[in-house]
Write a structure and sequence with these properties.
The chain is α/β, with parallel strands linked by helices. The protein has one domain: TIM Barrel. It contains 13 helices and 12 strands. The protein has an 8-stranded mixed β-sheet with strand order 3-4-7-8-9-10-11-12, sandwiched between helices. Strands 1-2 form a two-stranded antiparallel sheet. A two-stranded parallel sheet has the order 5-6. Strand 11, helix 12 and strand 12 form a beta-alpha-beta unit. Helix 6 runs parallel beside helix 7 and helix 8 crosses helix 10. The chain starts with 9 loop residues before the first helix and ends with a helix.
C-alpha cells in the first residue's frame, strides 16, 4: 500500500503564522514586531479605557444660560404639529405575560392569523392577557391578505391573495377548544376573488367549532359579500353562529373616503338585514352587531341619522370607538374624541332601543367587555327557550295522554 504524506515547509508555516505587510501607494505601513500581539498594541496606545467615565469638570449649570425663553411666535418647533397629539387615555402598555405568549404560540403553531395583530389593535395585551377561560383573541379567517384597500385598515391587500387553507376550519376549532372559552369572535378578510366570497369557508369553520364545543358562543364579523348574492349571507347566518357582525365603520357621507370604493353604506345595512332574514328562515335566532369609528370627519347629526337607520334595520348591538392611524400611509385622524362624548353616544344609542352599546376611545368591534355582556344575554335567551320548549313538550304530552285515555275508555 502506498502512503503519501504532505509536510508544510518552515517558510510556509512562518508565512501563515506571521503578520503580513502590505503597501498601498508605495507607502509602507509600520507593523508591530512579530513578537508583539494585537492586545499589546492596544494596551500601549494612549487611549481612554472603553468604559472609563468622562470627567471634564462640567456641571448642569454650565449648560444653562439663564436667559429667558423667547416668545412662542419666535421659537423653533420640531416635529409634526399639524396632527393632534395622542391623548394619554389612548396610550396602552406593551403586551406581555404568560397568557399572551401562550396564545401567540398556539396561533403560530396552527398557522392561524388574528385581526388583533394584523390591525394593530391597542387592546391586544388586555384581551390576550387574561387567564384561562378569560383571554380572548379574534381569529381572522381566509389568510392575512384582503382584496379590499380601506384607508383606515392596516391589513395587507392584494388582488390575488393565496388560495384558502383547507385545514383552517379544523385548526381554528382546535385552537379554540384549547383555550376553554365561552365566547369566541371570528373575523375575515374580504375575498372578492372567490366565487362565494368565502361564505362556505366561514360557515364550515363555525360548524366545526360547534361540533367540538357545542356550548361555545360564536360571533362572526363578516365581509359584505358584494355582488355575491344574498344566499351567501344566508349561508353564514344559518351556520349555527350566535352573533352576526358586519361593520358600517362610519357615516354614509364619509364612507367613500374611509372604506374601499366597493364597500357601500347601504350595502352594509342590507347585509345586516338579510342576516336576520336568513337565520329566521332556517329556524335560528341571532343577534346582529355593527361598529362605528369616530374621529374621521363625521358630524353629530350624521351619527344620529346612522343610529336611526341601524335601528330600522333591526340591528341589536352597536359599538363606538376612536379611529387611530395605524401607519403614516393611512388616512389622518380628524380629531381625538373625549371620553365624555363617547359616554353621550352610549346614552343616546341605549335610548333608541339598542340591546347593548359599548362606547369608548379604545373600544373595538371585537371587545372583551362587550362579549361578556352579549354572552350573558345569549345564555339567558337559551335558558328561556329551553324552558318554553320543556313547557310545550309537557303540554303536548298531557294532551296526548288525555286523548289516549279517551280512546281506550269503553263505550257505554
Amino acid at each position: 500500500m502506498l502512503r503519501f504524506t504532505a509536510t508544510a515547509s518552515t517558510s510556509a508555516r512562518s508565512a501563515i503564522a506571521g503578520p503580513s505587510v502590505r503597501r498601498y501607494l508605495a507607502t509602507a505601513v509600520s507593523t508591530p514586531p512579530p513578537s508583539a500581539s494585537a492586545d499589546d498594541a492596544m494596551t500601549t496606545a494612549p487611549r481612554r479605557k472603553r468604559f472609563e467615565k468622562l470627567d471634564d469638570g462640567l456641571t448642569f449649570d454650565d449648560f444653562v444660560s439663564g436667559e429667558e425663553l423667547p416668545p412662542a411666535s419666535e421659537r423653533v418647533v420640531l416635529g409634526n404639529t399639524k396632527q393632534p397629539r395622542l391623548p394619554s387615555f389612548l396610550k396602552h402598555p406593551i403586551p406581555s405575560g404568560a397568557s399572551y405568549t401562550g396564545i401567540k404560540k398556539d396561533l403560530r403553531g396552527l398557522g392561524l392569523h388574528t385581526v388583533c395583530e394584523e390591525a394593530k389593535c391597542p387592546n391586544i395585551g388586555e384581551c390576550w392577557g387574561g387567564g384561562k377561560g378569560a383571554a380572548t383573541a379574534t381569529i381572522m379567517l381566509m389568510g392575512d391578505t384582503c382584496t379590499r384597500g380601506c384607508r383606515f385598515c392596516s391589513v395587507k391587500t392584494s388582488r390575488a391573495p393565496a388560495p384558502l387553507d383547507i385545514h383552517e376550519p379544523e385548526n381554528t376549532a382546535e385552537a379554540i377548544s384549547r383555550w376553554g372559552l365561552g365566547y369566541i369572535v371570528l373575523t375575515s378578510v374580504d375575498r372578492d376573488d372567490l366565487a362565494d366570497g368565502g361564505a362556505a369557508h366561514i360557515a364550515s369553520t363555525i360548524s366545526k367549532i360547534k361540533s367540538k364545543a357545542p356550548s361555545i358562543l360564536v360571533e362572526a364579523l363578516t365581509p359584505d359579500f358584494a355582488s355575491k348574492g344574498v344566499d351567501r349571507i344566508h349561508t353564514v347566518a344559518s351556520s349555527g353562529l350566535d352573533v352576526f357582525a358586519h361593520n358600517v365603520e362610519t357615516v354614509e357621507r364619509c364612507t367613500p373616503f374611509v372604506r374601499d370604493r366597493r364597500a357601500g353604506f347601504q350595502q352594509s345595512l342590507r347585509v345586516l338585514e338579510e342576516a336576520k332574514k336568513g337565520a329566521k328562515a332556517a329556524g335560528k335566532e341571532i343577534l346582529t352587531k355593527t361598529s362605528i369609528m369616530l374621529g374621521v370627519g363625521e358630524r353629530e347629526d350624521e351619527i344620529h341619522e346612522t343610529l336611526r337607520r341601524l335601528r330600522e334595520s333591526d340591528v341589536d348591538v352597536v359599538t363606538f370607538g376612536q379611529y387611530m392611524r395605524p401607519t403614516k400611509r393611512h388616512m389622518k385622524v380628524d380629531r381625538y374624541v373625549e371620553p365624555e362624548e363617547f359616554a353621550k353616544w352610549k346614552e343616546v344609542a341605549e335610548g333608541m332601543g339598542f340591546l347593548y352599546v359599548a362606547s369608548g376611545p379604545l373600544v373595538r368591534s371585537s371587545y372583551k367587555a362587550g362579549e361578556f355582556f352579549i354572552e350573558n344575554v345569549l345564555k339567558k335567551r337559551r335558558a328561556a327557550a329551553a324552558e318554553r320548549a320543556a313547557a310545550d313538550l309537557a303540554s303536548t304530552g298531557q294532551a296526548t295522554s288525555a286523548s289516549t285515555s279517551a280512546t281506550a275508555s269503553p263505550a257505554l
